[in-house]
Specification:
With 295 residues, this protein is of the alpha/beta class. It has one domain: 3-Layer(aba) Sandwich (Rossmann fold). Helices cover 33% and strands 17% of the residues. The longest helix has 15 residues. The relative contact order is 0.13. Iron/sulfur cluster binds next to α7.
């Protein structure tokens, strides 16, 4: 394993603030390794975070960074990418940030197909504020705000991104480090909206309240429950394997299976390309008076 990722790591900010057994440290390393193996220039990368445990990741990253507000990472990232499509823009979000308070931004970033790479640490709850339920918490789960079991179903983030039109949608787990690096790299190379969901353990809250055992047992369970798309059982959870229509998917899914790999790959033109076209038309049809910047 190359140590090049350290170029992107702010070692002066160590030790990491995350609890022992949390998945976020591993996701951080995978992200930095993806940066290193693509040889990204630090000055040309903008990492945008919201608020939350995973939202603290920018503290450790030596690129440009904006620590936004809760649920608004994609709104900020959209502004950056719209103004500077030449930069690599990465949004790091927890499931609360991405799919709950920030859900509307998530849907519209995917619909707009804007060239942002979203890396979502999905630990099924609001970690930072004490383990409340989020938009991905599965029905029946115990959280600090659902001590008798959660009454709602959770979003499947990948299906949501797919339905909204994202070009690249993938899932992995914090356990599957090599796959995580590979998927993040692919996402960074995608011109349109790309989302990598990482199933990540929160042993401190979700794991403890749902009696999922020690941190080690939670990590082992991620290993055991993962099925690559195409593998037996791999379509059960999401059915968005290439060539399969969403309406062919089973609606109810075995909660214990986590389908991993690239679930959606499209070639829709991204926002920057479409907006450039509009600007060119405006310049032409507006008789050269339009001053829009097509970049
Ligand atoms: C507008 C707003 N609402 C609520 C909060 C409180 N808050 C901060 S972090 C957080 C939850 C974070 O959960 P998630 O995004 O899933 O990230 P995690 O901590 O699990 O990584 C909440 C509710 C806030 N900071 N701002
Ligand atoms: S509370 Fe959960 S998500 Fe937050 S650092 Fe601890 S284990 Fe990780």
């Amino acid at each position: 394993m190359s140590l090049d990722y350290r170029r992107y790591l702010d070692e002066t900010a160590l030790p990491l603030m995350w609890c022992p057994g949390c998945g976020d440290g591993t996701i951080l390393k995978a992200l930095l390794e993806a940066f290193a193996s693509l040889g990204l220039e630090r000055e040309r990368v903008v990492v945008v975070t919201g608020i939350g445990c995973w939202g603290k990741a920018d503290d450790y990253i030596r690129t440009n960074a904006i620590h936004g507000t809760h649920g608004r990472a994609l709104a900020v990232a959209t502004g950056v990418k719209a103004y500077r499509p030449d930069l690599t823009v990465v949004a790091l979000m927890g499931d609360g940030d991405c799919a709950t308070i920030g859900g509307n931004h998530f849907i519209h970033a995917a619909r707009r197909n804007i060239g942002i790479t979203a890396v979502v640490s999905n630990n099924l709850n609001y970690g930072m504020t004490g383990g409340q339920f989020s938009g991905t918490t599965p029905a029946g789960s115990k959280t600090s705000t659902s001590p008798y079991g959660h009454a709602e179903d959770g979003f499947d983030l990948c299906r949501l991104a797919d339905a909204a039109g994202a070009n690249f949608v993938a899932r992995t787990t914090a356990y599957h480090y090599r796959q995580m690096v590979r998927l993040i790299k692919e996402a960074l190379l995608e011109p349109g909206f790309a989302m990598v969901e990482v199933a990540s353990p929160c042993p401190t809250y979700y794991g403890r309240l749902n009696r999922q055992g020690s941190a080690r047992e939670m990590w082992r369970s991620l290993k055991d429950r993962a099925r690559s798309v195409g593998e037996e059982g791999g379509e059960a959870r999401t059915g968005v394997a290439p060539g399969q229509r969403p309406d062919e998917e089973p609606r109810s899914k075995p909660a214990d299976v986590i389908v991993t790999g690239v679930l959606v790959r499209r070639t829709r033109p991204d926002f920057a390309a479409r907006y450039s076209d509009v600007c060119r038309r405006a310049m032409k049809e507006g008789g050269g008076e339009a001053q829009l910047d097509a970049r």
